[in-house]
Design a protein that fits this description.
The chain is mostly helical and about 425 residues long. It is about 70% helix and about 0% strand. The protein contains 17 helices and no strands. Helix 3 packs parallel to helix 5 and helix 9 crosses helix 17. The chain is globular, with a radius of gyration of 23 Å. The two termini are about 30 Å apart. About 40% of the residues are buried.
């Protein structure tokens, strides 16, 4: 069930009416949210509902066992059981075929031929998101930051709350669980704000992302037929497509949660107005970036230690981030590119320079800020080409053509009659939204 589908347009009001006007207690509200979330998830493929249930049960019970255990070895056993099973499922469903194919290609390069098994399975929707919900919860329990939740209904809602299942944001138990356990009363202002955010998210998704996708697909799928200037235009379209998709879905998720009296973490904050890549990653997919920082970067040592250690940790974070987005070498190179982009900030220790919004206290940014934003934006556009390309060869060829002489020609391609209105719309959208 997609957020921008007629099914969801019917589903949401029904759940909303029952939630506020039929249920009479916090317990019944949470049960309704859980049943609605499981129904929402089963609409994709009911078989994967059992995987979500298993993951929820696993983390619920291992967390309790860790909390009740006074033996450090037993506590560590339950911790690693949860981590290994969760990551094991993620590896099987999302990455097994990638590793099998990569191994086959690597061995064939040295003359060895193997025929590994491939899994003909569908990737469960949202598996990366609910797996990361569970992982953060188990890690926080193990580190003693929070206590294990004994109420299975409340914990299950935290893991499977339906606005989060499609595309996040990735929530923390410390932020979401207390809201699930707190009495909630209908607030007209909050509900109205939620509806406005849903509408804004739908605008991003349907008007911006879907329209940009139409032209981006034409250009990327037929890139050999177009000039460098047209290819660059295609990269720009994809840049706004991916932002409209991700941030649009996040806005709908945040707005939907507000209808039920719950506040989710903000996921995007004017990322294309960043003055360097470090600032971009503080503003793009914030819940994922902060998750990697808190649960991988800091445990690896973070910014402590030698400069070499900082550089290695940074590369690990971005490679894992790329791999999280998809099982393809293009995503890994996308992550590596962003790691390279951020290196000057790490080495020169300027990665914390731009913590406030640009032109704070002023109407307009100065020339230096404009140049910094433009540079960061163009670097980001180039990296997105790898994210969109069908393979690494396609990405390199696409970029090489952009930097050819044909870049200095006027962009032109089939079905380009509506390009100018869309470009004007993108400009106004950027000024309004960032």
């Amino acid at each position: 069930m997609l957020f921008n589908s007629l099914n969801f347009a019917f589903f949401l009001p029904v759940v909303f009416i029952f939630y506020w006007f039929v249920t009479k207690s916090l317990k019944s509200q949470n049960i309704l949210l859980l049943l609605a979330s499981y129904f929402f998830y089963s609409c994709w493929d009911w078989r994967f509902l059992f995987l979500l249930l298993f993951s929820t049960l696993l983390d619920y019970f291992t967390a309790i066992m860790m909390s009740d255990s006074e033996n450090p070895k037993a506590k560590k056993f339950w911790f690693w059981l949860s981590i290994s099973v969760n990551l094991g499922f993620l590896a099987i469903f999302k990455y097994y075929n990638f590793f099998a194919e990569s191994l086959t290609e690597a061995l064939s390069g040295i003359g060895l031929k193997i025929n590994p098994w491939s899994l003909n399975i569908i990737l469960p929707v949202g598996i990366s998101f609910y797996t990361f919900h569970g992982l953060s919860y188990v890690i926080d329990i193990y580190k003693g930051r929070i206590k294990a939740e004994r109420n299975f209904i409340d914990y299950s809602v935290f893991v499977s709350f339906f606005p989060l299942l499609v595309a996040g944001p990735i929530e923390r138990a410390t932020h979401l669980l207390p809201q699930i356990q707190k009495e909630r009363t209908f607030n007209y202002t909050k509900a109205a704000d939620g509806l406005r955010q849903i509408l804004w998210g739908l605008f991003k998704k349907i008007v911006i992302a879907d329209q940009c996708a139409e032209f981006a697909n034409i250009i990327f799928n037929n890139s050999a037929d177009y000039s460098g200037s047209t290819l660059f235009l295609g990269a720009l379209f994809f840049t706004f497509q991916i932002y409209g998709d991700f941030s649009g879905y996040s806005d709908i998720a945040l707005g939907t949660a507000r209808l039920f009296g719950i506040d989710l973490l903000r996921n995007f904050a004017f990322p294309y107005f960043s003055r360097d890549i470090a600032e971009f990653w503080r503003r793009w997919h914030i819940s994922l970036s902060s998750w990697f920082k808190d649960y991988l970067y800091i445990p690896l040592g973070g910014s402590k230690g030698s400069m070499l250690k900082k550089i290695i940790n940074t590369f690990i974070i971005f490679i894992v981030s790329g791999f999280w987005h998809g099982a393809n070498w293009t995503f890994i190179i996308w992550g590596l590119l962003n790691a390279l982009y951020i290196m000057p900030s790490i080495i020169l220790k300027t990665n914390r320079d731009h913590l406030d919004i640009v032109a704070k206290g002023r109407y307009l940014p100065n020339l230096k800020e404009v140049l910094l934003m433009l540079t960061t934006f163009l670097l980001t556009v180039m990296a997105w080409i790898f994210f969109r390309a069908k393979d690494v060869k396609h990405a390199f060829h696409y970029i090489s053509e952009i930097f050819s002489r044909s870049f200095f020609t006027f962009p032109s391609f089939d079905k380009d009659d509506n390009v100018k209105p869309l470009l004007v719309l993108i400009i106004f959208f950027s000024l309004l939204n960032g």
